[in-house]
Design a protein that fits this description.
Layout: E1 3-7, H1 11-23, E2 27-31, H2 34-43, E3 48-51, H3 60-68, E4 78-82, H4 87-95, E5 100-103, H5 109-120
Parallel strand pairs: 1-2, 1-3, 3-4, 4-5
C-alpha cells in the first residue's frame, strides 16, 4: 500500500483529501505543520508528500528545504498544494524540487486525486 504524508492545516481540505485518498486505497498520515512533517519523516518512509505552503510555524518552503537536504528522506517526491498561485511561488516550489504544484482554487479534488494516483501508479 502506498503511503502519503499530507501536510495541510486547513481542516476542511485535509479531511476531504484524507478521506478521498484512503477511499482510493492509499495510506494517509495527516499533520498540520512543517515541524510535524519533519518528525513524521524521521519515523517512517513515505511514497509522496502533499505539502501546503502556508502553515503554522515553519512554512512549507522552509520544511521543503529541510526535507530535500536530508539524506534519510530527501528523495521523497513532493507535490505542493497551496493557495499561493503567483509565478514566483510556483517557480520557487519547482526550484526546490516539487514534482507538481497545484493551486487549490484552480484544482478540483478529483483532478488532484487522479494526478496523485497516476504518479504513484495505483
Amino acid at each position: 500500500m502506498k503511503k502519503i504524508l499530507l501536510v495541510e492545516d486547513d481542516q476542511f481540505l485535509s479531511s476531504l483529501l484524507f478521506n478521498r485518498l484512503q477511499k482510493e486505497g492509499l495510506e494517509v498520515v495527516l499533520v498540520v505543520s512543517g515541524d510535524e512533517a519533519l518528525t513524521k519523516l524521521k519515523e517512517s518512509r513515505y511514497d509522496l508528500i502533499l505539502l501546503d505552503i502556508i502553515l503554522p510555524g515553519k512554512s512549507g518552503f522552509e520544511a521543503m528545504e529541510q526535507i530535500i537536504s536530508s539524506p534519510q528522506y530527501g528523495q521523497t517526491p513532493i507535490f505542493i498544494i497551496s493557495n499561493l498561485g503567483q509565478e514566483a511561488d510556483i517557480a520557487r516550489g519547482r526550484e526546490l524540487g516539487a514534482k507538481e504544484y497545484f493551486v487549490k482554487a484552480q484544482t478540483p479534488i478529483d483532478t488532484l486525486v487522479e494526478k496523485i494516483k497516476g504518479f504513484l501508479g495505483v
